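Hi C.,

You asked whether I'd gotten around to modeling the 331-residue construct. I have! Everything is below, sequence then structure, no commentary in between.
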Amino acid sequence: MKAIGYNAAGNADTLEIIEMDQPVVGPRDLLVAVEGISVNPVDVKLRAGVEPEGAARVLGFDAAGVVTEIGNEVTGYKVGDAVYYAGDVTRAGTNAEFHAVDERIVGRKPASLDFVEAAGLPLTSITAWEMLFDAFRLTEGGGSGQTLLVIGGAGGVGSILIQLAKALTGLTVIATASRPETQDWVRKMGADHVVDHRGDLAAQVADLGLVPTYVAALTATDQHWPAIIDLIAPRGQIALIDDPEALDIKAAKPKALSIHWEFMFTRSMFGTEDIGAQRDLLNRVAEMIDAGTLQSTVTERGDNLTVDALRAAHLKQESGRVIGKQVLGGF
């Protein structure tokens, strides 16, 4: 089958068409004919800095498609089902004609979206959901009278995190955005207040008369760390997804802050007992999309999957100016 991968870490030009065997399904696996994919910051990070082990590495984690084969222990799906999911960082990726994935991290595709649009949701939805309900330990309907600050609100995770927080909790949401178009976007996603992370973040939040209990640090956490420590409430909670070189963790002690890493691949990497939680939350997200409670975060929809299209999507990710999500069709 055809796939797009890379043989040595480097820039986007390292991406190339490769021929590889169709995946062999394991007992709990689905074989999916990939009809849509999206590009995420993790794709760029791995391509630029992680050497393949042996054969070329195929990237891509978000996918939507049709089940063409099932493993002998699969119970939740059948051939012909339309699904969407975010994959497993320890396995070959979704930038391929066919992809094998554990059924326990797969959801049923939203019926109201086509495959390409649906592919923009899984990774960011899982990340945002786990931040709210695993890291922050919020409950649905909880958070009334409290505030969530989302730093980097116009990106893929921020766009769905704002929506989930407004739909499922009582939190007041402040989102950061620095350009007129990104500020308009986070308001469209449902943010109650917008501040500019290029300015004095702590002062702008204080001017709102709000003291966040929760901070979702989605980008440049090291740069914003002093402001986060300053503006957050005592015994507040911080969740981050990026990879800062260093943080002054002791600065969090006077306020007795809790700090959480969110990594949506953890459940699949370690085969945790609650791995099926990702299937369940993806099904909830699909239901909410179909009910109109959530909206798609896709802003850039390309043509079918080609080397040129994927390279262009990687370059746009590297620019740091992506709003929402980028998606492409399958081969």
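If it helps when you're writing up: The two ends are 10 Å apart (CA to CA).

Thanks,
B.
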